[in-house]
Structures are given as C-alpha cells and as structure tokens.
Amino acid sequence: MRKILGILGTAGFAAAALVATAAPAQAAVGTEACTLIQSEIYNGANIIQYVQGLEGCAGDVSWEVQSQDAAGNWSVWDSGTTYYNDNTITTTGDVEFPCVMRVHAEFGTQSKTTQPARNNNCGGG
Asked: Is the pLDDT of residue 53 over 60?
C-alpha cells in the first residue's frame, strides 16, 4: 500500500511541476509574439486567392474585403472576424469577389492591406 501511495505521490508531484513550469511560458505569449499573415492577392486564370492567419499565437483577426468603384473610391464589400490558432487559411474564389479588390486585416496593433488586384472573372461590385 505504501508503494502505491509513493508512486501516486511522485506522479502527482511531477504533474504539479509540469503545470507550474508551463504557466509562465503561456503567460509570456501575447500579441507581441504574434505575426499577422496577409499575403498579396494572387489573380490567375479565373481565380483569386490570398492567405491570411496568425503565426506564433492564437486570436481573432478582423478583416475586410474592399471594393473599388469606377471613381477610385474604396468601400467595404465584405467583413468579418476569423479565429486563427497559429495557422493560416487560403481563400479562393472568382465570381463571388468584386472586380477590383483589396484585403485589409488587423490583429492587435498590426494592420496589413494588400495591393489592389483586378478580378478578371468578377461578378460585379
């Protein structure tokens, strides 16, 4: 019985040590350890594609797909917030995107906007 209690006590101490040492490392990770990923828009043959996400942490990224009108004015065509956990997502489309577009993303104090791209297979906007 003592042997079993001794093993359980040792395992409990080891588990407590792991929790105690993991806590400071997690607390050190903040928005300053994150990198906002926003690739330029790729416009190939009948396709629009860009990559967005976070590297080094997890959190919510606010984004806007912006459309340019004939006079050169930008407006928000679509927007939202996407949660990333140290990953990226590739967005692909064509007719569902505006004819001239750019993507703006924000995370904490980081902000990135792509160069405008012409969508040759656009559905309007």
From this structure: yes
